[in-house]
């Protein structure tokens, strides 16, 4: 009977509930604080990802024409996706912070679903960058160089554009890095090439851009270069100059994206847990 | 650079001397002297030692010292037996098995050898006269990958040691390769598992 309830019991039960509310309040506050911190980190990482991917897409080493000609330029696609994912992460992290502070179930549900979509896109970007980096072997670039460098008979406009891109890129590579061919000047001797069709072997055992150049942009000794005298021609290969920047790009996109996704995973799990605990 | 000027000297000299010298087949004496000189390919540090249509020989320095004003020639042949006559390079090897080139006088190969300077002969370097039959001793590019025999001789010797040049092998095309690295497999696997966990957690939260 309700009349049998003693006032003492009422006092202790109300104290008990107050204590529980205080504990739960503390727990909620800690949870909110952690989620806000997590979202701040996601926002900053999003900005960093956007900046990194813009840097890669701007192609500071001028290597994009080589990949375009191999039709294997998906590490650039991965960088493009990274730019937009970075922006999305920034916007969604702000939405998440607002939702957590207001404890609004609708906002948090929207946040979770959009974050999952962004997660899927970033996952695609990481896997694409890692997979396509595996295709970038020395033989791929060697084949491209032999087939396209200074090729004279081009089939159509697209072929002509790719050939010009490859020729210009290789000329820049050889002049700026003082290198020749992929493995060395012997590439031009060991394999057939489009270059050999228009340039005879006696005058051009390798392209003249392989020669050590003077201040005027002319070889310092053309005969020494043709003979292969050390000091008058560049005997090292260009593969390091190509693979270094491309590897950094691929691993930069793939591993940084992976790290962001691991952190986002934790924050999303926490948000789902928080969402399921708050009342409407 | 000193090296460079000696190189230019060698190539210019051989070009200038081209057509006006005596052919050894007509001035061959009956002395029958032989010499144990093996004309060698240039040192291995030269990257262009053997290319598709040229090769580089060491100059025959200090060999012909006791013979004054001898004409020295290089004979390139497709077999180890020299024919009686040689004709210009555009007709080689279809009409004959040897041709003469790089004619020089004895004083060009005088002792002592200069120190640190490159003394080589590049066979096949003149492309301007390669198809011109009116230039008799053109040092044109070799027509095929070989093999070739060559002999350095002057008009006092009827026979000298020859050496065979194994030509550069016929060029081919490279293949392409590429496998899957461990990093890519790790990234794919871990991210797929994490996404699956997230979707499962979402379903669990929604269906409560």
TrEMBL record, chain A:
Top-level taxonomic group: Eukaryota
Compartments where found: Membrane
Cross-referenced CDD domains: uroplakin_I_like_LEL
Pfam families recorded: Tetraspanin (PF00335)
Membrane-crossing residue ranges in chain numbering: 33-57, 77-101, 108-130, 253-275
GO cellular component: membrane
Topology within the bilayer: Multi-pass membrane protein
Keyword Transmembrane helix: yes
SUPFAM superfamilies hit by this protein: Tetraspanin (SSF48652)
InterPro entries: Tetraspanin/Peripherin, Tetraspanin_animals, Tetraspanin_EC2_sf
Keywords attached to this entry: Membrane, Transmembrane, Transmembrane helix
Self-association state and partner proteins as the record states: Heterodimer with uroplakin-3A (UPK3A) or uroplakin-3B (UPK3B).
PANTHER family: TESTIS-SPECIFIC EXPRESSED PROTEIN 55, UROPLAKIN-1B
Family, per entry: Belongs to the tetraspanin (TM4SF) family.
Protein name from the UniProt record: Tetraspanin
From TrEMBL, chain B:
Transmembrane helix as UniProt keyword: yes
Keywords: Membrane, Transmembrane, Transmembrane helix
InterPro entries named in the record: Uroplakin-3
GO annotations of cellular component type: membrane
TM annotation in the entry: 183-206
PANTHER family associated with the record: UROPLAKIN III, UROPLAKIN-3B-LIKE PROTEIN 1-RELATED
Protein name listed in UniProt: Uroplakin 3B
Upper classification of the organism: Eukaryota, Metazoa, Chordata, Craniata, Vertebrata
């Amino acid at each position: 009977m309700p009349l049998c309830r003693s006032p003492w019991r009422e006092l202790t039960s109300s104290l008990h509930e107050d204590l529980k509310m205080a504990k739960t309040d503390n727990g909620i506050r800690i949870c909110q604080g952690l989620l806000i911190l997590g979202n701040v980190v996601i926002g900053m990482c999003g900005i960093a990802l956007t900046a990194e991917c813009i840097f890669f897409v701007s192609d500071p080493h001028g290597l994009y024409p080589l990949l375009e000609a191999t039709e294997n330029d998906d590490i650039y696609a991965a960088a493009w996706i990274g730019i937009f994912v970075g922006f999305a992460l920034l916007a969604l992290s702000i939405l998440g912070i607002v939702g957590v502070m207001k404890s609004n179930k609708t906002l948090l549900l929207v946040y979770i679903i959009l974050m999952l979509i962004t997660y899927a896109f970033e996952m695609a970007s990481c896997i694409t960058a890692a997979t396509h980096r595996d295709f970038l072997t020395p033989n791929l670039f060697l084949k491209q160089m032999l087939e396209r460098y200074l090729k004279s008979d081009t089939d159509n406009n697209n072929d002509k554009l790719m050939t010009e891109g490859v020729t210009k890129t290789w000329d820049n590579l050889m002049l700026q890095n003082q290198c020749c061919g992929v493995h060395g000047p012997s590439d031009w001797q060991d394999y057939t090439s489009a270059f050999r069709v228009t340039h005879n072997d006696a005058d051009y055992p390798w392209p003249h851009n392989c020669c050590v150049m003077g201040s005027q942009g002319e070889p310092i000794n053309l005969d020494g270069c043709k003979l292969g005298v050390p000091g008058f021609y560049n005997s090292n290969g260009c593969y390091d100059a190509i693979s270094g920047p491309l590897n950094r790009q691929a691993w930069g996109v793939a591993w940084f994206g992976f790290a962001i996704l691991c952190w986002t995973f934790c924050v999303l799990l926490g948000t789902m847990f928080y969402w399921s605990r708050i009342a409407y | 650079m000193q090296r460079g000027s000696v190189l230019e000297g060698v190539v210019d000299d051989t070009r200038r001397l081209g057509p006006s010298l005596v052919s050894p087949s007509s001035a061959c004496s009956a002395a029958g002297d032989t010499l144990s000189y093996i004309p060698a390919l240039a040192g291995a540090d030269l990257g262009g030692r053997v290319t598709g249509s040229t090769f580089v020989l060491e100059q025959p320095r200090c060999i012909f010292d006791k013979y004054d004003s001898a004409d020295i020639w290089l004979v390139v042949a497709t077999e180890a037996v020299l024919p009686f006559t040689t004709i210009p390079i555009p007709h080689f090897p279809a009409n004959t098995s040897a041709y003469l080139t790089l004619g020089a006088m004895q004083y060009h190969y005088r002792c002592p050898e200069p120190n640190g300077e490159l003394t080589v002969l590049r066979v096949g370097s003149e492309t301007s006269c390669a198809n011109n039959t009116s230039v008799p001793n053109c040092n044109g590019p070799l027509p095929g990958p070989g093999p070739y025999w060559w002999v350095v001789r002057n008009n006092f010797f009827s026979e000298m040691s020859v050496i065979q040049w194994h030509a550069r092998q016929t060029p081919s095309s490279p293949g392409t390769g590429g496998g899957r690295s461990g990093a890519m497999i790790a990234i794919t696997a871990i991210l797929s598992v994490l996404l699956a966990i997230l979707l499962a957690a979402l379903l669990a939260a929604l269906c409560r």
